[in-house]
Amino acid sequence: MGPVVSASANIVADTATRIFTDLADPQTVNNAADGAWRDRVWDALADAGLTLAWVPEEHGGAGASLADGFEVLRVAGQFAAAIPLCETLLAGWLLARAGISSPAGPMAVAPTQPKDRIAVNPDRTLSGSVHRVPFARASRHLAVLAHGPTSPVIALVETEACRLTEGANLAGDPLNRVTFDRTRPLELAAAPPDFDQTSLMLMGAVARALESAGALEAMLALSLRYADERVAFERPIGKFQAVQHNLARLAGEAAAALAAAGSAADAIERADTFDDAVLLEAASAKIRSAEAAEQGAAIAHQVHGAIGFTAEHILHRFTLRLLSWRDDFGHESHWAATLGARIAERGADEFWPLVASR
Asked: What's the pTM value of the predicted model, to 2 decimals?
């Protein structure tokens, strides 16, 4: 079944698009002398309720649907804006699952890697070290999934109460190791039944897949426009068969990523738990969007030639983030192995009914 976009999701997407277009146009941002644009776009998104879209109203959020938030992420990918919007949405969603209200301002979520672990001590403090946490340094609070003696718990932690290392991803966005050394959270509550770290990784994987799909859409538009404008041998390069072939391949990669990510978002929207059907959809979306990121980045740069590698051109804003997002919430190799193991556990007789049910 293909992705279904609700009327409210369209309205939310239009609102996000207007804000990003007015305040975070990639070329304007690329030419900016400082980062003042970040505060302006963040304030506008927060005023519109988009930063806490997944937080119920009684916990300080907008109470929007999952579909609404997923559309915001796709739009955010189309602008490749270096702000912790995805991270704050996920953090608010995680806190809300434990009935914890979200504070104002940017948040990050931890862990973001399947094998990282944070433990709850007997005195209700947190211990552990997690790596590759996007925008931790730029966030005021962390939403944390930790492991208690018998079940997972969710905590709200002040970032300054943790020890952070400096770091950045390929695009220069903050990417930090966060160490919890008997850190006392502001709030701590039990996670819902049947919710574990895999559930968080699957939600994060779909969020990154949607951002990647949005970035690929923008890269396709950039490449089509450049191919129509760039003239060689007295005609636009888009008239050459080899370039047309590459553009068709890029369109295919963008369409495949969007279809897989949209289907996974629908699966999460409709499911009560992160069951095997959600695992199939979410893992497939992360795998396919990561493959599309690799192929799409190469194609877009080939179409643009050397100009696409320059700091002055905006293409790198998309390609470098696309390649960085592949490793967040589990890279494609992890999800391919996880998906294969789960299918093997179910047995050959269960494979086709599971696939056909989607």
From this structure: 0.94
**303-320 per-residue burial string, b: 16 or more CB within 10 A, e: under 16:** bbeeebeeeebbbbbbbb
pLDDT at 7: 58
The alpha carbon torsion through 254, 11, 16, 253 (nearest 10 deg) reads 0
pLDDT category of residue 358 using cuts at 50, 70 and 90: low
On whether both 148 and 201 belong to a single domain, the answer is: no
Q: 9: domain CATH number?
A: 1.10.540.10
Q: What is the mean pLDDT of residues 49-71?
A: 95
Q: What is the pLDDT of residue 4?
A: 46
Query: For strand 187-190 and strand 175-183, is the pairing parallel, antiparallel, or unpaired?
Result: unpaired
Cα distances (angstroms) measured from residue 114 to each of 70, 77, 110, 188: 22, 23, 10, 21
Indicate the helix (H) or strand (E) that contains 40: helix 36-47
Q: Does the pLDDT value for residue 1 go beyond 50?
A: no
Q: Would you say 116 and 130 are in contact if contact means Cβ atoms under 8 Å apart?
A: yes
**Cα torsion through 308, 332, 243, 320, rounded to 10:** -10
Write out the two tokens for 31: 């030419």
Domain limit, last residue, from 173, 195, 217: 195
φ and ψ at 63, to 5 degrees? 70, 30
Whether 309 is in a domain gets the answer: yes
